[in-house]
Protein: Homoserine O-succinyltransferase
Organism: Marinobacter xestospongiae
Amino acid sequence: MPESLPPDSVGLVTPQTIAFEEPLTLACGQTLGRYDLVVETYGTLNADASNAVLICHALSGHHHAAGYHSPEDRKPGWWDSCIGPGKPIDTNRFFVVSLNNLGGCNGSTGPMSLNPDTDRPYGPDFPVITVADWVHSQARLADHLGITQWAAVVGGSLGGMQALQWSLTYPDRLRHAVVIASTPRLTAQNIAFNEVARKAITSDPDFHNGRYHDYGTLPRRGLMLARMVGHITYLSDASMGEKFGRELRDQAFKFGYDVEFQVESYLQYQGERFSESFDANTYLLMTRALDYFDPAYDFDNNLSEALKQARCEFLVLSFSTDWRFTPARSEELVNAMIAARRKVSYAEIDAPWGHDAFLIPTPRYTDAFGAYMSRVAREVNA
């Protein structure tokens, strides 16, 4: 971390763990008798609790979205570029809540947590979670914080699915939903990518049917491969070419199968780092939640009928080179919102970084995002 904090940083932040004792019935039919959610907050909640913004994270995200955990931190939260004083989600104007979802591996109750029925980690016995389950747990979090209605629910990728689900499940509990680099449902190709990633994990000899903790092992190779596959889909061809091209590590062919190209080295590094910081069972849960998300399913596959449940206004943002969740998927969502007579603003951002572009503060992106959130803030103070 720099010697002094940047003026647009939320500064040093401390996560808190909130325990919920009321049982939560899940879409799969199972019930969690109790559970914890790990949360960070930034900014100050106003007197009537009308300036609260919920941040929903993507597949490998967590509660640490902005600021620093200690003076020794060298890396801020994962969305620090968009959360802080003067940033699109301005903490001088909003009270921002970011959490680690149920099933996560960063402190909230998930597969790594102790199962109270066995006194051992849940492992593969942790129930399958859906986006709707997350939203129900987040609604209870809002109750705990004294927030009856969010000024906005905001998320990118899988987080955008949660923002959309909020608008349908609790239509009177948010005024705006911001859906970034997301989709109303996965394509067959996306489901296929997720299945390849899961198969890489479950085929690892150290997976042990999800009970690897009982054997003192971790399926590092499988999780590494899953992350490598996923990471390829988060980047565009252009961004990978710009970063690596066809550069060789040692400027000469070795005529073997070890790592020779810079892009191979990069993917291995990303995979190895991820395999030591993320839980394999959580990865399985998160990708399956992605697969299952389809708000039109209960409305005869009619997305516009599903969206008639919503009462909030929407901002939808897509990125030109995102081939994981293409602009066409965002346009499908926007067209359904228009057919449902919902209020929606939409922009496709020209950016070369693929799906990861929602994490990168390009000017047109932050300008569009910031202008919309400024309008949300003005409504709070009207």
Remarks:
- The first strand starts at residue 16 and ends at 20.
- Residues 363-381 form the longest helix (19 residues).
- The chain has a mean pLDDT of 93.
